Amino acid sequence: MCHSALNRHDLAESVLERAVAACPDQADIAYHLGNARLARGAPGAALAAYDLALSWAPDHVSAWHNRGVALAAMGAPGPAAESFRAVLARAPAHASAAFHLGRALIALDQPEAALEVLAQAARLPHGPARAVALADHRAIAWMALGDARAALAESEAARQLQPDQPLLAWNAALAHLTLGDFAAGWPLYESRMALADPAAPPPPMPALADLIGRHVLLRAEQGRGDMIQFARYAPLLAARRVRVTLAVYPDLLRLMRHLPGTAVISTEAEEPAHDRSLPLLSLPLLLATRLATIPLPIPYRPAPASVEFTPGLRHAAIAVSGAPGNAADGARSIAASAFAPILAVPGWQFHVLQTALRPADAAFLRARPTVVDHSATLADFADTAALLARMDAVIGVDTALIHLAGTLGLAVGVLLAVNADWRWLRGRDDSPWYPGMRLFRQNRRGIWAEPITAAAAWLSRLPPAPSRR
Predict the structure, then answer these.
(1) Could you give the C-alpha distances from 257 to 235, 252, 263, 347, in angstroms and in order?
(2) Which of 399, 309, 416, 314 has its CA nearest to residue 355?
(3) For the sheet containing 348-352, what is the strand order?
(4) In this structure, what are the phi and psi dihedrals at residue 4, rounded to the nearest 5 degrees?
(5) pLDDT digits over 50-98, tens only?
């Protein structure tokens, strides 16, 4: 115990392991062993100790609680939730268990249940730090339900208590941007930099006038879709007499190397000497973008790919899922089988331009006679753009392919979850970022039938585009 109090967790663990061996059936010793292991960052080993404690004392509330904490740290929110429920069954006024159960339910994508539990936790005694955390997690739950106004109210309440907390600023930024309040949202959006590297807070945003005549390196950040969407800002900055170099991911280099007034390099290349660097997604703040002043995308003009298409049919690219590593992928991706109404629209051939498909989706699409898979032929986004240039339409979920199609000026239909990303705003079926794009939104969480049916009807009515072949 003394070793733990002095943060000597390895020594505490060694002592407690000997104590457990010498004194079996002592649940408190096993519990403290779990705490030492958890404190040194070994939740799996801690879990074994807590399970040992509970085998000796099934009603050991603290062991149940910390077992849940260990499981949450291991990325197992379902079993963690069961542990916290076991705590509340034995100690209904356990505020920490209620809070952690709410967190686990958010991770399980059960925001309605999370809000109920977090409300229960808020009624139990807690200090200022827990009040901030409760408001923060309620904001996350409200955003998951698509209610940005309720989320903003929670975030602002938390920021009143802890105004310098970057995570609270980030959640408030997402709510403001979702609601189209860019004036309030962009400054708070800078909190992402502090979250990425708390030890190195970014320098303050420079004034635009101070960059004239200087060399600015724009750094790549976030995903490929973000880069494609916000690359439009690099030429705008260059047009203000700033020398601009844009670093992009290697698979975007060929696509973007002809951006007007902009030197484009790979993130893997050596950085040139420069006067100032900025993250690309900070440019809307620098250039004071508002909803009514969103600049048009840069129209990439790739040479069409030399691929034989079935004559007499119209051609649409589809995107059924995003990158599996994306935190939002569970909400935005759709089983390919759910696309059946779209794939049944007569007169169309459908083209898969995703480079990674889930096995079940790949099997379903391979079995469809109207679907052609080009994924094996795509080396980078320039190849993808070349194929897109021959399409009559694109329809799919929120992925980089959708952003690329938007920059090419294609007819694009986007399938959006209730808690769609902030850039798609709320309550509208168009996008100010991409003129001509059509948005099909869920009316109910997790239910894709309605937007897919609407998208299929849109595709069937789409007027012929100028020949792209």
Answers:
(1) 12, 8, 7, 36
(2) 399
(3) 371-373, 348-352, 314-319, 393-397, 412-416, 438-441
(4) -65, -40
(5) 999 999 999 999 999 999 999 999 999 999 999 999 999 999 999 999 9
Conformation bin of residue 446: beta by default, left when phi > 0, alpha when psi is -120 to 50 = left
The secondary structure of the chain in percent helix, strand, coil, rounded to multiples of 5, reads 50, 10, 40
Read off the amino acid at residue 254: R
CA 277, 278, 280, 285 dihedral sign is: negative
pTM above 0.70, yes or no: yes
Q: Are 319 and 397 in contact (CB under 8 A)?
A: yes
State how far the Cα of 143 lies from the Cα of 422, in Å rounded to an integer. 10
Structure tokens at 352: 């898969």
Domains and CATH numbers, the chain: 208-293 (no CATH), 314-461 (3.40.50.2000)
Residue 66 in contact with residue 96, Cβ under 8 Å? no
Q: Which one-letter DSSP state was computed for residue 391?
A: -
Query: C-alpha dihedral over 44, 48, 50, 52, to 10 degrees?
Result: 180
